[in-house]
Amino acid sequence: MHACGKDIGLKMISADVIDPRSGRPTSATIAFEVSYTSGSADSAAKVANELTTLYLNENLNNRTQLARDAATFLEAEGDRLSRQIADLEVKARSFQGQELPEAAGAQTNST
């Protein structure tokens, strides 16, 4: 089975949607159409199915990598924020242990 580039068709199908981040109308690819032209219907179906499988597998690989990247980023951000919270808690405890100058003056004046 030999597929030639001119015999292969790929058409992206888009729809008008609202971007959830901006609230603005935009166009989004929602599907695709793969075709293969051949003198044999059986051959055309096999090649078109293989092209579809290859495209879907590549898309899955891309999405998996994006999910891994997002998870790595979120884990790093979680660690950074945990360290920042721990630092703020140390500062808060240190601050709570200090006596305010106004309070110290009030105690010496009242005794």
Mean pLDDT: 87
Q: Given the C-alpha coordinates, what overall shape results?
A: elongated
The low-confidence runs, each spanning 5 or more residues with pLDDT under 50, are none
The order of strands across the largest sheet is 1-2
**How much helicity do the residues have?**
55-70%
End-to-end Cα distance, whole Å, is 101 Å
Helix and strand sequence: EEHH
**Biggest β-sheet strands, sense, barrel:** 2 strands, antiparallel
Number of helices, counting only DSSP H or I runs of 4 residues or more = 2
**Rg, alpha carbons:** 31 Å
Strand content: 15-25%
> Which class do the helix and strand fractions yield?
alpha+beta
**Multimeric state:** single chain
Number of strands: 2
Word description of this protein:
This protein has 111 residues and is an alpha+beta fold. It has a two-stranded antiparallel sheet. A hairpin with a 6-residue loop joins strand 1 and strand 2. It is built from 2 helices and 2 strands. The chain is 60% helix and 21% strand. It has helices at 41-97, 101-110; strands at 8-18, 25-36.
Per-chain topology:
Layout: E1 8-18, E2 25-36, H1 41-97, H2 101-110
Antiparallel strand pairs: 1-2
Q: Main attributes?
A:
60% helix; 2 strands; 111 residues; single chain; two-stranded antiparallel ribbon; alpha+beta; elongated
